[in-house]
Fold each of these.
Amino acid sequence: MERFDAIVIGAGAAGMFCAALAGQAGCRVLLLDNGKKPGRKILMSGGGRCNFTNLYVEPAAYLSQNPHFCKSALARYTQWDFIDLVGKHGIAWHEKTLGQLFCDDSAQQIVDMLVAECEKGNVTQRLRSEVLSVTRDDQGYTLQLNGDSVQAAKLVIASGGLSMPGLGASPFGYKIAEQFGLKVLPTRAGLVPFTLHKPLLEQMQTLSGVSVPSVITAEDGTVFRENLLFTHRGLSGPAVLQISSYWQPGEFVSINLLPECDLANFLNEQREAHPNQSLKNTLAMQLPKRLVECLQQLGQIPDVSLRQLNSREQESLVELLTHWRVQPNGTEGYRTAEVTLGGVDTHELFSRTMEARNVPGLYFIGEVMDVTGWLGGYNFQWAWSSAWACAQALAE
Ligand SMILES: Cc1cc2nc3c(=O)[nH]c(=O)nc-3n(C[C@H](O)[C@H](O)[C@H](O)COP(=O)(O)OP(=O)(O)OC[C@H]3O[C@@H](n4cnc5c(N)ncnc54)[C@H](O)[C@@H]3O)c2cc1C
């Protein structure tokens, strides 16, 4: 049976980075994945350009039942460290918006960089590998694979969450955690579009593709200021993806469709200057025409001139456009979600090393654990930071 110092399960962002660093520190590392290619999610990410980190990474941008857990790793391996590595590999990048860093060229460059780092660490890679069983004794961990068995003193689970089963996602990491007695918190889809109840959806069919700046607020008070996109299934766009991680079934979200305009003031000024101008044309100066037309067809915008608009109608219009309350039907689920909320309870792990407190030699890194970042490069940064912390411990 072939023996290694460490086996890493999952050749995604966290697993590749951890294997590479541990290998470079002198460990004999085996990296396993069930897929044909490493880093499949990286290739899909950021519209093919991989939003690999964010300039404004901070612990407050992560959801977890144990919010302090992520602090140590994020402080020890920061966005600047990763930006430095990307620079060393000659990968050109740019900031798109809100500190989000993307490759100028292609996400393939990040995968190639991680492959090169693994090669530098002499990491043995086995793709298309099914792990049939994992057992532990005083020799360490023995893995039964499809074909043969392998053994290592240390085992790292980097198998990610449940989002996008088409890209190899599986509950493997949660099952291993439970097998070794670690608590797994309930999981749900995060950074995911909302679906809407049929009547509302039918009313808004004509809006599919319309995008507007918005401020969106969840019932717990969390607020995001980003674009909202109407789709043929419901609502999407960065504002909705962000707030979906803070939304629970049955709850409402409140949407301000005119965050950059004091609507009451604007209407009063326009009324002064052009009293005979139609309300519809006035609103179309601030909102997409298709949205205004749709709201008028739904009877939400009266077919009147500014002079005819009475103060009660104006108030309810301002309320509708700045505090639109929507109760989503649900989310599009793991099929399109970018991340999985919940997972391995971080109270079970040491935040410095990612090792299970009660199972020596067993580590969890990346998305498999209950640490989920905002949209915008935060999730990859968690993969890099947690992988780095774990790799230091493997090398000790
Ligand atoms: C479409 C999409 C776009 C995204 N864009 C961004 C972005 O631009 N920026 C950002 O920060 N985040 C983005 N994310 C989130 C980010 O991809 C993840 O948070 C990150 O990949 C998590 O890294 P990981 O290594 O923990 O897991 P993953 O990258 O998911 O890797 C897990 C690996 O484990 C393997 N695996 C699973 N089960 C088994 C098993 N039983 N046996 C063997 N191997 C197994 C999988 O095949 C996979 O290769 C995006 C996600 C998606 C789905």
Amino acid sequence: MQIRSIKAYRVLQPFVSGTYAMSKGREAAAFDSVIVAMTSDSGVTGWGEMAPLGSFYSAAFAAGVRAGVVEITPHLIGEDPRALTRIGRLMDTVFKGHPYIKPALDMACCDLVARAAEVPMVTMLGGRTSETAELYEVVTHGTPEAMIANAAKSIAGGCKRLQIKVGGDVPGDVERVSAVAASVPKGTVLFCDANAGWTVYQARQFVDATRAFDYTLEQPCATIDDCFSIRRTLDKPMVLDESVTSLQEMLEIHQKGAADGLTLKISRLGGVSRTRQLRDLAVDLGFMVTVEDTGGAEIDTAAMAHLSLSTPPENRLHAIAFHTWVTVRTAANAPPVTASHMGIPDGPGLGIDVRPDLLGMPFLDLSA
Ligand SMILES: [Mg+2]
């Protein structure tokens, strides 16, 4: 089997709820997504997607993804898409670093291979471990009133897990989080995600002022050492997200005992293949795991769902349904979601039926 052609599309995906806000004025109004269609000589097409969250969230930006895909794609024509590790090494050889330009291509390879083998991607990622994964929703940064209203909307919809954005001024964060925590039903699972926004001093102040209620602390500070300093005296679970960009960092976190759980993001790690490797190792090391990404619609969410549902339930934290965030559709179906859980669509590969007619003209169309 050989890769015969690759097309790439840019799809702007405005948010249903307007602006997504994190601390310190970091905002986005849409995902700026790159979608890749990879077709084999046998006529099977696999799909991949990568969408950064603005240019502020991770070391990635949408124009960079597009430029990178254009540069790297000619090297893949003629390669065997089933040789996923070889393709990963080839991409790293011809284009050093920049892991965020590779995930859509790797995801398309994984989808193509699973479709050609007529199995769902979850099977190739280790096998399905449960029917659905629990979903969480994000309470973005805002006034206490706005955040309470935001949380109430999620709860009214049936969601039982909330990630509250913190990481700004500590007294304000304490006020906002305390207000949200007091407003939600007993048993609601809360995460406080600072997105690496605090100094150690600030994180310690926040933790000290919020001892009264239960939550999991997510990525309080920027470095592993600073987060570890917080965790040493923390009486709550802690997960790291932004700190996990490679195997080396994951091993450092394990060695130092710097976290109880990890958030693995497909695009930050360079693709589905690499994320699967780290996910399996994270489970073996005893971490709790969330597999997600920085953004996207049906294609990217399906990949997240297949990775989540091949993670053992006892090690799985939760998942997120990004396709419900955006106003545009890219496929005729999507991962099935209830208010609190997400499954995977039936069918081979990602299981979704992408609609090329909804994607506009490709900005790249390369054939053998
Ligand atoms: Mg996070």
